[in-house]
Amino acid sequence: DAGVTQSPxxxxxxxxxxxTLRCSPKSGHDTVSWYQQALGxxxxxxxxxxxxxxxxxxxxxxRFSGHQFPNYSSELNVNALLLGDxxxxxxxxxxxxxxxxxxxxxxxxxxxxxxx
Amino acid sequence: xxxxxxxxGPFNVPEGATVxxxxxxxNSASQSFFWYxxxxxxxxxxxxxxxxxxxxDGRFTAQLNRASQYISLLIRDSKLSDSATYLCVVIRxxxxxxxxxxxxxxxxxxx
Lengths: 116, 111
Known about the structure:
The structure holds two protein chains of two kinds. Chain A is mainly β. In chain A, 0% of the residues lie in helices and 49% in strands. In chain A, the strands form two sheets. In chain A, strands 2, 4, 5, 6, 9, 10 and 11 form a seven-stranded mixed beta sheet that branches. In chain A, strands 1-3-8-7 form a four-stranded antiparallel beta sheet, with no helix packed on it. In chain A, a hairpin with a 2-residue loop joins β5 and β6. Chain B is mainly β. In chain B, the strands form two sheets. In chain B, strands 2, 4, 5, 9, 10 and 11 form a six-stranded mixed beta sheet that branches. In chain B, strands 1-3-8-7-6 form a five-stranded antiparallel beta sheet, with no helix packed on it.
């Protein structure tokens, strides 16, 4: 049973560029959440996708956008990259049922983004 | 004030020692509490949930004090393999709400 997978593992971009990160959830999971973890900090919630829609959003600018596909996989897009966007981007998958019971979130290995 | 606060450490302890980590949270409506473990350059992994009655898993004991808005993790008989960052995590509401992480406490167990 494959766990959460993310691609790419590492990425180097230049300020002003755009980036797309990808996540495949654990088998049987339908909800994907994205987190940003800066060095020395805990992960910060970016947004969550369920049924191909953004269900919740953290305190991140509109430069951060996402998408969820019918197979539950998800993408995180960041436009107009800033040096401060350098971080580990983590994807977590979970199951939502009915009105949205929260189950354990399983994290992928992350994508390490460096903006120069 | 941060919603979840932890002492960042590092805690450097010898093998076999007992070590305790504390965490405070500011939102009294918080409903669920967890400890995650994160190894260097790896993803966080759930270590254990935290209940008001306290819970134990082998050498690990977690406690929750809702009145003081305080969570603790006790590790007994520390092993070298326990070296990691321990993240305190809070969920504000029921339903699919995001995890709110503390900054983490670094533990180094020394031979």
